[in-house]
Amino acid sequence: MRILITNDDGINAPGLAVLAEIAHDIAGPDGEVWTVAPAFEQSGVAHCISYTHPMMIARLDTRRFAAEGSPADCVLAGLYDVLEGARPDLVLSGVNRGNNSAENVMYSGTVGGAMEAALQGLPAIALSQYMGPATSELSDPFEAARRHGTRVVRELLDNGIWDQGDYRLFYNVNFPPCGAEAVRGLRVAPQGYRKDSFFGVEPHISPSGRKFLWITGGAQHMPTAPGTDAAVNLDGYISVTPLRADLTAHDTLDALRQRLEEPAA
């Protein structure tokens, strides 16, 4: 099996090393694991691509490359430059330092990398490690992902739903904020929503007198609706959420047609 891996925390991030271990386990001794990851951290870039400027790419080691771009850029670079059109069997993105549950999905470069792979017609999985008080006490905060990641990916490859639609299914996996022994199992969960927890800005004045704005995040340990991704994560479960890049609100289409469309002549 040939696997392409990327992330949004950067080429030297510890979570990427965890993902490489998982990928090598899945690929097997005769497989190939190719890494194309951002040269610098790209957290929060979502599905951004560097459409208006070029990016430099550098070979760091055998099958290991750094690109000055987003995770989606890295997937494109891997498919059309590094691998020279030899398509991988699977694309893995992560393991992100921090959760990509609930509304974080919309901002996540980790999810963006997997989304681009799905748009290219490839099986793809994004993986993230929820952080919290329990993980901060561990010598390896990625312990849950490291211990359980291979099993979850294999379970998805063997028993997941992999369609061939225009907006192909891909998967978002979040490991709970606890040690590996405390993981209670796996739950298939929809994307949740943290009410009253929003991104914002915090102004600061530099020594030169100029105003700069820092983006601030909302509370990450607020539970979402029961059974949704962040809720099951905080309850000790690995969440698996099927996603598509199609953002159409399909549940409103018929009602909106009745309100807006004129009857056919």
Report on this structure.
The protein has a 9-stranded mixed β-sheet with strand order 3-4-2-1-5-6-7-11-8, sandwiched between helices. The protein has one domain: 3-Layer(aba) Sandwich (Stationary-phase Survival Protein Sure Homolog, Chain: A). Helix 1 packs parallel to helix 6 and helix 2 runs parallel beside helix 4. The longest helix has 17 residues. With 265 residues, the protein is of the alpha/beta class. Helix content is 29%, strand content 24%. The N and C termini lie far apart (55 Å).
List the helices and strands and how they pair.
Blueprint: E1 2-6, H1 14-27, E2 32-38, E3 57-61, E4 64-67, H2 71-82, E5 90-97, H3 104-107, H4 109-119, E6 124-129, H5 133-136, H6 143-159, E7 170-175, E8 185-188, E9 200-205, E10 211-216, H7 229-234, E11 237-243, H8 253-260
Parallel strand pairs: 1-2, 1-5, 2-4, 5-6, 6-7, 8-11
Antiparallel strand pairs: 3-4, 7-11, 9-10
| Widest sheet, order of strands | 3-4-2-1-5-6-7-11-8
Instruction: Name the CATH superfamily classification.
Output: Survival protein SurE-like phosphatase/nucleotidase
Beta percentage is: 15-25%
What name is given to the CATH topology? Answer: Stationary-phase Survival Protein Sure Homolog, Chain: A
Q: What's the β-strand tally? A: 11
| Mean pLDDT across every amino acid position | 96
The assigned CATH architecture is 3-Layer(aba) Sandwich
Radius of gyration over C-alpha positions, nearest whole angstrom: 19 Å
Note the total helix count.
Answer: 8
Helix/strand order, N-terminal first: EHEEEHEHHEHHEEEEHEH
Q: Supply the number of structural domains.
A: 1
Write down the overall geometry: globular
The major sheet is characterized as:
9 strands, mixed
Report, as a whole number of angstroms, the end-to-end distance.
55 Å
